[in-house]
Amino acid sequence: MAKTPSRPLHPATRLVTGGRRSEWTGTAAQPGAVVNPPVYRASTHLYPDTAALKTGPAKNEDGRFYYGRRGAPTQWALAEALTEMEPGAAGTMLYPSGVAAIFGALLAALRPGDVLLMTDNAYEPSRALGRAWLHEFGVETRWFDPQDPAAFAAALCPRSKVVLLESPGSLTMEVQDIPALAEVAHAQGLCVIVDNTWAGPLGFPALTMGADITVMSLTKHVGGHSDLMMGSAAAGPEWYAKLRRMAQLTGQVVSPDDAALALRGLRTMGLRLQQETAAALALAEWLAGRDEVARVLCPMLPGSPGHALWQRDFTGGCGLFSVVLRGKDAAARNALIDALELFGIGYSWGGFESLVTPLDPAGTRSATPWPLPDMDPADRFGVRLSIGLEAVEDLKADLERGLAAWRGAEGA
Ligand SMILES: *Cc1c(COP(=O)(O)O)cnc(C)c1O
């Protein structure tokens, strides 16, 4: 950005101006000469003399040339833009994937002998970290019902050090009462980590709602074009220092080319989120009225589970939601998916194109059953939809084709 703003900026404006320091977008003679920071492909950073070489690493400040593993202006600009969008953040660390960011946050906060509490609806690779790596290194993970703050309080013990929340939760979209859970956690001295990939800071300013560390998979909406993998973790001063120390010790770095792509994605993220949120809401409403559908899991939809909390705590949504089909089996559900022409079949979400994956969470829960207690046990299979930027009418026609295939399929 060319000039220092004279008044506080709206988040939509910060999305455009963030990270555009004039010394990163120009030369000493012509600061701020271009809009975007160039792609600095650099491992070695050079020093004018041995005295500077000696003092450089000791300083190790953000935004100073040192060595490629600490990044260069392209990565610094992205990290700074993310920090500017995140109310309460002192800084943001970048990681080569969202999973690496979750790992980086856990590593900064846990030590052998500690207990990690994890919401039962967490992203499966987060669960796998608890089951495998953390377990092997002496950290015990306990899962709790995302909808039940009392169960969370009851699960705490003197060894509990961290709670990992995710709201809405992967696949099943439960909204958690994060302010209430964080209050309980903080009373016991726990660090609260929130996987905030779904809403991002525009929809849920996690650090102001009780999170100590907020994590995002930038692979999703920030990248936005299904062409990069990256993650971030942001925090206030105390936890940012710990995140930064651990990220530096373990050599976390992202490529400048990917950082430039992520910055490009970030500039239009607000607009994309608005469009896909509106489209997802329209489709969720339409699906909720269909006979084939037992339940729509979309917190933005009035009457859907979690809507009241979403309305209370969130300022935005996104295009990701799930649909539980009425009865039948996995084969019928697969017939629905295979009949779709516009929805790509594949993992990830938050790109410009619509995607679909099977929903069958029974095997990925340990503290709560699936189907949920208030659901018909026959309603088990469904789909998760990531709504992209296609015309809603075309997506509706595609889903209509899928539902017809589901109706035509065998199944109880
Ligand atoms: C995709 C995802 C991640 C992991 O991100 P990657 O960049 O794919 O490693 C973490 N949390 C949630 C909720 C996700 O959907």
UniProtKB/TrEMBL annotation:
Catalyzed reaction equations: L,L-cystathionine + H2O = L-homocysteine + pyruvate + NH4(+)
The protein's enzyme class: lyase
EC number: 4.4.1.8
Keyword Chloroplast found: no
Keywords: Lyase, Pyridoxal phosphate
Matching Pfam families: Cys_Met_Meta_PP (PF01053)
N6-(pyridoxal phosphate)lysine found at: 220
Cofactor(s) it depends on: pyridoxal 5'-phosphate
InterPro entries (UniProt xref): Cys/Met-Metab_PyrdxlP-dep_enz (IPR000277), Cys_b_lyase_bac (IPR006233), PyrdxlP-dep_Trfase (IPR015424), PyrdxlP-dep_Trfase_major (IPR015421), PyrdxlP-dep_Trfase_small (IPR015422)
Family: Belongs to the trans-sulfuration enzymes family.
Protein name: Cystathionine beta-lyase
Species whose genome carries this gene: Novosphingobium piscinae
Gene: metC
